[in-house]
């Protein structure tokens, strides 16, 4: 074979050989990662926290950029299981997508997470998070199956929806949390990077989250109780034993006060 034919053969081979797929990488916090969550009001970026959870829609881009420039990670919060009438994409939900009112939260209703329309909207929210440069996402209300939603959602329906969310987040190069949904920890643990939990200590459910720690994945815990100093010290001892990162915060998550067990 002449040298020119050899070069041509090599060029053809390079054209038909499929490209090697590079695995998508995403942020994976460790169990000692410190954190802050604030969903309302101007962001207080003055805490010595490794990771901030902030609202996907309401947080100015400059806040995300500045936090990341200072070495912090930003996780973007959105509700994946409820309709919120004030969101900019609220008009895209169909009447059939919306179920019962969500507890004590005015303007919020459970969603039928089996709906193709709901899933399309959530896919676009995940894309928005990626476009805004979020290091990860914190999808809330992913436990509709265990609540009175107005829809006959089953355990398997919830697993299917949550897997859909988590796999899409990872495909976009973002970390993803399991928010509450303690009944599905065993099935979903391999698909998420950390847990965000509200009040497991109050309901004596914290033991259900220990598989995260065993897997080297952090548990970010929120305490909403107004504990006195002695009770708070006991609470923090319990959190330290569990290796959870616990914050005492207002229900509004507006930074009106904050107590961190690791301070």
UniProtKB/TrEMBL annotation:
Gene3D superfamilies, alphabetized: Aldolase class I (3.20.20.70)
One protein family per Pfam: Glyco_hydro_114
Entry superkingdom: Bacteria
Domain Glycoside-hydrolase family GH114 TIM-barrel as annotated: residue spans: 34-256
The name this protein goes by in its record: Endo alpha-1,4 polygalactosaminidase
